[in-house]
Amino acid sequence: MKKHKVLINILFIIIWILLFTIMRYFLKISTLADLFTFIKCHEKIATITFLILSIVRISAFLPGMLFMIIGGLLFNPMLGFTLSMVSMIVSESIIFMLAKISFNSRFINKINNKYPELMNMSKKYNHQFLALAILCPIAPTDLACFISSYVGLKYKSFFLTVIIANIPIIFIYTILGQSFLYSIYYFILIVVTFSVISIYLVKIWNRLAKPISE
Model-level pTM? Predict the structure, then answer.
């Protein structure tokens, strides 16, 4: 498992190096202004590239939050939101299927030993656990998707939960990405609002996890 993880990370790093090289030396993109100009002139290529990267990010264990913010920064709010939602549905569905066909007992035991509270929370709270994991900033969303699938959550419930729970979180991160283009006051307002919501969600997460893990 460790060897596979190292190889996947190396492959992902190589992909990023190739993308950087292509952008810097072939497409002549060296500043953010150059990138915006390129996206405006080649929107289809830009959207497909972003979509692919935001899906394969799971192979390098990168958080979806990062790509939601980038999507809000690079594209208009509607397009950025749509791309992030599609990528989350596809990437989390891949994780769902991997959990269903996973026969690596060592990997499952490792998760169970390292995160016993997540296994128990998923069994007790079902799709509510998954929804909270998606919304809560400290929760490992991808791992929660894997565990939810492994403990027996049906795909229909999984699919609906992923969509419904991701709507507000993608909206916030997309607006956060957009806020970089406007005044510092707008950015601070979004950050403060998100922080207040996050504190409340973290308290709920800790309250649900604490009695189970003890």
Answer: 0.77
